[in-house]
Amino acid sequence: MRKRAETDDFVQDAMVQFLRYGPRIQIADDGHFRALLVRIVEHALCDRHDWFAAQRRAVAQEHPLPSDTVLTLDPPHNSVKSPSAAAQHHEREAWIRLGMELLEPGDREVLVLRKWEDLSFAAIGEHLGISEDAARMRTNRAVSRLGEVVGTLRRGELAAGGEQDHSGGGV
To answer: Is 168 within 8 Å of 28 (Cβ atoms)?
Structure first.
């Protein structure tokens, strides 16, 4: 990855993305803040590495759009959101992004494959070397854990390492 950009650039980009799109949270102390940032930067670096390494990123596989392609840039009328609905959507997205950063790597991987890569359970199973049903179960458990993490974050009960903080302090 160092051939693609400076290490500091990747770290700075991860921090800017977190500060721009992350939810507004209270951190209990400097240690929790550092631990959270380390985890976010670590995942951002892994994600960027995977992006560079992916077969679909190979220049030889890229093809220009045909010249007769017509793109509609105007959104359908039923997809226009009110400002408050858009703000709620962005806030939910920010909580989910932060929750994803705090999940275990296996849970993150299966959710990225299913929700962002839009792979079928059969394709996920093949990628992970497990059955289609096992991939479905892992995905369902990962979604459930993500919901728990986001709920815990929103209540301010999650400690920096991702474990529950029962002392009553915030994130």
So the answer is: no
9's enclosing H/E stretch is helix 7-21
| 115-132 b/e (C-beta count within 10 Å ≥ 16 → b) | eeeebebeebbeeeebee
- Rounded CA-CA distance 23/36 in Å is 13
Helix, strand, or coil (residue 158): strand
Q: Please compute the mean of the pLDDT values over residues 29-45 and round it to a whole number.
A: 84
Per-residue pLDDT at 120 exceeds 70: yes
- The whole-angstrom separation of Cα 157 and Cα 134 is 31
Residue 165's φ and ψ, nearest 5 degrees, are -110, 105
Cβ pair 101, 43 in contact under 8 A: yes
Contact yes or no for 159/34 (Cβ under 8 A): no
Rounded CA separation 123/60 (Å)? 23
- Domains in the chain (CATH in brackets) are 7-56+85-155 (1.10.10.10)
